[in-house]
């Protein structure tokens, strides 16, 4: 029997047996390290959340303890996903993508813990998010200067981490790795945006807030109820003065104090003349019809400078939604014995004031101005949750509700790399698509407008052009009893019944692209418009009766050089919805 068994054990079997044993042991070793690394990363994730909160609130002692825990966790995870054995394992079919993702995440988080955290902690005792928020009407510019080197270094590390981890495709991952990687990508994107905002603020604030000489800015509060491309008409305006970090509001007014120029105050481009009327360069109310805030700011600067006999160093634009987000953290204010809160300021400024003072323009303007001053004074006093204030400002900038333009070219170059620039970005690999609305009536009827726009990648042509569909839905929520709508809200137009609203929908294709089809409620529309800076534009007038809705579908092609993920930009309205949307490329 023994001889028979020996006969059946071939040389091949003698080789395969040990090999299988090695494979099993190797696999078990890799699985053990992967599990341990995942545990360490889970611990690091929880600690990072705590650390963020501690840094924001100024809990330096707690932050240092959390940082030490975080560094140990990321170092342990990185050690377990490094080495020749792990490099071999990353080539294993099916599981290799997960192992590579785990190694990338471990390595990048370890870099963040080692290279970014120590510099942040070094200045954490003196500086926190509160540094960028005013106290007693003043921003501490010395503290801002002190924090800049640490923010600059940490921002660079976070940017690399977001780039490397963001390159991981969660769809290729399996098991327990996919969800954590997706969550980490979202968290890193948000953290990196905040770090970049802080980096830009630390570079710009010392100069822009008068650290090197007194500055003067034009503040515009847009009125989204009379909608324009960038948000709304510049309904209320004010002069802001900054000197050595101290900011105060001086003169106030409205677009009615500015008047309309006889001819455009800037030389209009061929594209502007193609797509807009000359009022874009003559009337402050129409300056925000431009899709490019720096252009609108130049027009506003020239118009208001002449009317107020004042020289401005830049322009800042906000809207009532920004004011609402601020009030949520600084607390309510009182205007004409009326409490103005985060919950009622949008309704109050965009509708209630016109109901209360129907056709009394002076009282309407006065309520706007008093509200703006009350919120500004409370904001600059430093009352409330300073950390919440900074975060709300960052969120508003991301939604293009806060926009800033500087007359100084060196500052404007930096601003244009950020979300507060309000620029119509072009020149990159990502095709930029825009859907913008402008009121074509005379009232404030877009208070009654619900709008949404989505974008989806349809296909990639043989020529390498991306084909995307842009779907816009508009709905009038105006009351069916038309007589209940005040004249100040409804406006006066011989071609519109009270309660109807009319908006021009402008669809901007990417530079070098095309609008290949346009439908409204499944009916084909003729593409009529023009060209704006090499961007084909379709203009579709839409009239809505109370309760009526409509759906517009545009098919848009990119240029052949634009293989990146498409970006959709839309007009900020009364309702808070995303105004910048990014999707994956149709061309991979």
Set out the fold topology:
Blueprint: H1 2-8, H2 11-57, H3 60-80, H4 84-89, H5 96-124, H6 141-166, H7 178-208, E1 215-223, E2 233-243, E3 246-254, H8 270-275, H9 284-287, H10 293-308, E4 314-318, H11 320-330, E5 333-335, E6 338-340, H12 345-356, H13 361-381, H14 386-398, E7 403-406, H15 409-415, E8 432-439, E9 449-460, E10 466-476, H16 487-490, E11 501-508, E12 514-520, E13 523-524, E14 529-532, E15 535-544, E16 549-557, E17 567-570, E18 580-582
Parallel strand pairs: 1-4, 8-17
Antiparallel strand pairs: 1-2, 2-3, 4-7, 5-6, 8-11, 9-10, 10-16, 11-15, 12-13, 12-16, 14-15, 17-18
Helix pairs in contact: 2-3, 2-5, 3-5, 5-6, 6-7, 11-12, 11-13, 11-14
Mean pLDDT: 85
Strand order of the largest sheet: 14-15-11-8-17-18
Number of helices: 16
Which word captures the global form?
Answer: globular
End-to-end Cα distance? 63 Å
> What about the largest sheet?
6 strands, mixed
What's the number of structural domains? 3
Number of strands: 18
Task: Using the CA coordinates, give the radius of gyration.
Answer: 29 Å
Strand content: 15-25%
Share of helical residues: 40-55%
Q: In terms of per-residue confidence, which ranges show pLDDT below 50 for 5 or more consecutive residues?
A: none
Structural class: alpha+beta
What attributes characterize this protein structure?
588 residues, alpha+beta, Aminopeptidase, Immunoglobulin-like, 3 domains, 6-stranded mixed β-sheet, 16 helices
